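Good day; I would like, with your permission, to put a structural problem before you. I would ask you to consider whether the tokens describe a fold that such a sequence might reasonably adopt. The full record is reproduced below for your convenience:
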Amino acid sequence: MIEQDNLTNKQQDYAVFLPAISSFFSTYVGRQRHEQFVDAARMPRAIPDMEMLNWLNPQQGLFPYRWSLYSAGHADLDVAKFNAKEDMTRNRDPNSIVLGDSGGFQIAKGVWEGDWRNPNDERSMRRRQAVLSWLDTTSNYAMTMDIPTWTPNIPGATAKTGIRNSQDAIEATQFNNEYFIKHRKGLDEGGTKFLNVLQGASHPEADQWYDLMKKYCDPKQYPGRHFNGWGMGGQNMCDVSLVLRRLITIIYDGLLEPGIHDWMHFLGTSKLEWALLLTDIQRAVRKKFNPNFTISFDFCDFSFDLYVW
């Protein structure tokens, strides 16, 4: 009998690493539950059940860990239809926490095609609706549907997305934010908490993005509909000086308030030195300003980072 190693209990007050759930892995967990999909002869003798490898299952998992990231880009977005591969996230322990990624990466890479500059474009409109419904149903926290300013740098992306420059990306993201603000389920109805994603490939561009997007976290401007935290992308997730300056600005603007804006996620940040830095920042903010404040970070594809930067 293998002894359970409870990783949740070991987390303590560190910044939270979010392992990303791949569609391949969730398929095996879900289909094993409903279809006996995995041949027992292929499983290790000491691990006869895929559920033992499901860290979101605190009863059966060998290494329970309550936090995860799951992307709309890998999911079946039809929440009205049963799909075994989605059961790992849809039918999970109520104390687990899943951060839903909205699929901005899929847009930027041209995988989700559409004229994202045009609010009336049918393809992007259908995708936007499906992603919002999926996030509101599946996740505890979720990214807003940002379109990174580096989108035009990807070969062929402009033809597939309509995004020609950083200003197009900003305007398209503003429309997506307005749509999410208007149509989100809302916390009183059991909906997810949204993180306002900040992008920008330089300090001036990041400052412009923040100045335009910060209002979506303001309870005074969007009472009962405002976003509930922050997602740090672009230069905001890899530049220490910008991160610290942005934090001070957010606090000064009254947009990191206890019980209102308690979560900040760093996209594509998984280096060990950043885990230490983010832990220090989290502890300092908890001590001095917001005792509920949590920082999370996720896996980074290093080859993609090299390409973008």
Strands lie at 16-18, 67-71, 97-101, 141-143, 193-198, 229-232, 263-266, 294-298. DSSP finds eleven helices and eight strands in the chain. The chain has a mean pLDDT of 93. The chain has one domain: 69-75+94-308.
